[in-house]
Write a structure and sequence with these properties.
alpha+beta, Mth169, Chain: A, four-stranded antiparallel β-sheet, two-stranded antiparallel ribbon, 3 helices, 6 strands, 25% helix, flat
Length: 110
Amino acid sequence: MKKFMVIYSAPAKTPEQMTQVSKEDHAKVMEAWMAWKGKHEANIVDFGAPLMPGEAVNKSGEWTAANPTTSGYSVLQGNSAEEVKALFNDHPHLGWDPSAAIEVYECVAM
């Protein structure tokens, strides 16, 4: 099987919004994520985690804020990109905000 890096993106305001969510609503969100995980367990290599805002370095060694919408990652496996992309048709991340997105990249063996 091939491996795929999955990058979740959401508006930069999402992490702040999550700190204001009730415990009950947070539990509902996590329940949806865990249900998705259970449904696709055979394809999950690394479930991943949320990501805090990052930084990027340029050639001169200068660090600046990285893409503020990058919000998490997962590593999945499948026979093709089409197979892996189909796993996200019902993913709870897409319900966060109309601009929330999921990117899928095939990992190339080195």
